[in-house]
């Protein structure tokens, strides 16, 4: 009888484990499915992966990683240019705000992207918030009919306190910035990839009612 239950147990493993694996893979595929945002007020559409956890007519908050709610893409339409800095500022910071004079030194690199005939500026922000925490934000935007269309990717690309000893050497803030920028420019990073895919799908069109 003992041998019978032992055989039955091992047989069940061959059935349950593949089914569990299949279910998990199927769940991942559902989560990775692309969905579409159609905004009739501003006449644009774009694809996204993940889920929308907050939206208005001019702002969307998209969670791109279910297991980590802090991995987010903020999309905003505004007459003023801004960036989302959750740690060092606590929200949207306008570029021309007096408070942003010092913070804008956090733009460590800028490039241009062409998306469906539109030129997007991509700013890489690295702002040290103290105690080893950083805001490492990719902020892309374009201007169309007096409105800025802004995409801020929030992800923990970098952490660590400048001044700590690494490999028997005192680290510097610039060394952290170089490392963080390298990670943010890595197109193979899953978060950068999803962000780029979302950005590349953005377009204006005559959307029927």
Describe the secondary structure blueprint for this structure:
Blueprint: H1 2-31, E1 35-39, E2 44-48, E3 51-55, E4 59-63, E5 72-78, E6 82-85, E7 91-94, H2 100-103, E8 107-115, E9 118-130, E10 133-144, E11 147-154, E12 165-166, E13 169-170, H3 173-184, H4 190-200, E14 203-204
Antiparallel strand pairs: 1-2, 2-14, 3-4, 4-5, 5-11, 6-7, 8-9, 9-10, 10-11, 12-13
Give your account of this protein's structure.
The protein is α+β, with helices and mostly antiparallel strands. It has two domains: 1-31; 32-204, Protein Transport Mog1p, Chain A, CATH 3.40.1000. Helices cover 27% and strands 40% of the residues. The strands form four sheets. It has a seven-stranded antiparallel sheet, covered by helices on one side. It starts with a helix and ends in a 5-residue tail after the last strand. Residues 2-31 have low confidence and may be disordered.
């Amino acid at each position: 009888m003992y041998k019978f239950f032992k055989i039955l147990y091992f047989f069940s493993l061959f059935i349950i484990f593949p089914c569990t694996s299949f279910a998990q893979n199927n769940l991942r595929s559902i989560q990775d499915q692309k969905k579409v945002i159609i905004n009739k007020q501003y006449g644009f559409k774009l694809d996204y992966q993940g889920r929308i956890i907050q939206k208005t007519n001019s702002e969307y908050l998209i969670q791109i990683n279910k297991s980590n709610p802090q991995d987010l893409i903020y999309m905003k339409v505004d007459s003023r240019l801004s960036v989302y800095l959750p740690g060092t500022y606590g929200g949207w910071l306008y570029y021309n705000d007096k408070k942003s004079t010092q913070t804008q030194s956090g733009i460590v690199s800028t490039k241009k992207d062409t998306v469906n005939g539109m030129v997007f500026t991509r700013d890489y922000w690295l702002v040290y918030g103290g105690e080893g925490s950083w805001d490492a934000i990719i902020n892309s935007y374009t201007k169309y009919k007096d409105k800025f269309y802004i995409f801020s990717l929030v992800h923990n690309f970098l952490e660590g306190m400048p001044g700590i000893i690494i490999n028997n050497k005192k680290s510097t803030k610039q060394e952290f910035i170089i490392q963080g920028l390298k990670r943010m420019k890595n197109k193979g990073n899953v978060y950068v990839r999803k962000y780029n895919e979302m950005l590349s799908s953005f377009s204006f069109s005559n959307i029927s009612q």
